[in-house]
Amino acid sequence: MSQIFLAVAVVVAQGLLLLAMGFALVRMLRGPRAQDRVLALDAFQVNAMLLLLTIGLRVGSALYVEMALVIALIGSAGTLAFSKFLLRGEVIE
Fold first, then answer.
1. In a domain, 93, yes or no
2. CB 11 within 8 Å of CB 20
3. Residue 46 placed within a domain
4. CB atoms within 10 A of CB 51
5. Is 17 exposed, middle or buried, given 0-12, 13-18 or 19+ CB atoms closer than 10 A?
6. I need a surface site. Which of 20, 53, 76, 88 has the fewest CB within 10 A?
7. Is residue 82 included in any domain, yes or no?
8. Is 29 in contact with 70 (CB distance < 8 Å)?
9. Residue 49 CB contacts under 8 Å (≥ 6 apart), including other chains
10. How far is 9 from 37, CA to CA, in rounded Å?
11. pLDDT confidence band for 91 (50 / 70 / 90)
């Protein structure tokens, strides 16, 4: 019973994460300002990381967890760089 419930919950979570990634993609394309696009890119990155974690949970492989960790590190650094560029006009002072 609990195995079936867990499998269904993971599939539903993956579907909702894909939906959230679609909404973030729409915001990236239609965003009225650059700040909206950077925020949507960050949301897209977080959802992609969580999708990789759910795939790793479903498959049972630790490789997906490592890929999600790399995406989290690169994504947070990229978001900080974009934010600093939009705020000051340069990344390195």
1. no
2. no
3. yes
4. 20
5. buried
6. 88
7. yes
8. no
9. 68, 71, 72, 75
10. 30
11. low
Give CA–CA dist 32/15, Å, rounded: 27
Count how many domains the chain has. Answer: 1
- Token pair of 90, please? 């340069």
What's the token pair of residue 67? 């890929």
Q: Which of 18, 44, 19 is nearest to 31 (CA)?
A: 44
Could you tell me the residue range of the domain that residue 25 belongs to? 2-88
Which phi and psi angles does 76 have, rounded to 5°? -70, -40
pLDDT in tens, 46-88: 999 999 999 999 999 999 999 999 999 999 898 888 888 888 8
